[in-house]
Automatic annotation (TrEMBL):
<feature type="domain" description="TsaA-like">
    <location>
        <begin position="24"/>
        <end position="158"/>
    </location>
</feature>
<dbReference type="InterPro" id="IPR040372">
    <property type="entry name" value="YaeB-like"/>
</dbReference>
<dbReference type="Pfam" id="PF01980">
    <property type="entry name" value="TrmO_N"/>
</dbReference>
<dbReference type="GO" id="GO:0032259">
    <property type="term" value="P:methylation"/>
</dbReference>
<comment type="similarity">
    <text>Belongs to the tRNA methyltransferase O family.</text>
</comment>
<dbReference type="InterPro" id="IPR023370">
    <property type="entry name" value="TrmO-like_N"/>
</dbReference>
<dbReference type="InterPro" id="IPR036414">
    <property type="entry name" value="YaeB_N_sf"/>
</dbReference>
<dbReference type="GO" id="GO:0008168">
    <property type="term" value="F:methyltransferase activity"/>
</dbReference>
<keyword id="KW-0808">Transferase</keyword>
<keyword id="KW-0489">Methyltransferase</keyword>
<protein>
    <submittedName>
        <fullName>TrmO family methyltransferase</fullName>
        <ecNumber>2.1.1.-</ecNumber>
    </submittedName>
</protein>
<dbReference type="InterPro" id="IPR036413">
    <property type="entry name" value="YaeB-like_sf"/>
</dbReference>
<keyword id="KW-0949">S-adenosyl-L-methionine</keyword>
Amino acid sequence: MKDRFAARPGEQRLDAPFAMHAEITFIGHIESDWSLEDCPRNIGQAREAGKPARLWVEPQFRAGLDGIVTGDVLVLLYWMDRAPRDLIRQKPRHRDTPTGTFNLRSPARPNPIGMGVVRVLELDIDAGRITIDAIDTINGTPLIDIKPHIPRVDQLPA
């Protein structure tokens, strides 16, 4: 299997380990049709594939789903647990020159937090299952948080 995160020319890895400052509680996980080998590079590609995904929320957090309904737009934060955390400059295939990690949405970063804006297709709060339109992350990815998308707040400043 080819190493998806093997360093390319011009890339830079961190020289030394870095300190950890916090803990994260995973509230569930994401079930998708994607593996590391075939995962779309972005949510647009995931939507084009037409493969819905499911969020599974652990029992102790299910009360937090109250108020979410079918059709809602949610912002998901998830932990890309298989991504390298030491790549600080990257050379993506779609760019001619390397660039800083914080200028990319690559999963390879010091804190591999992914974000997706998704639509709720189905909801079963008792089971802790939310079916969403699409996601660009691999099956089993830990779910950090779910937030409502609020159009009047989540917009660019004038």
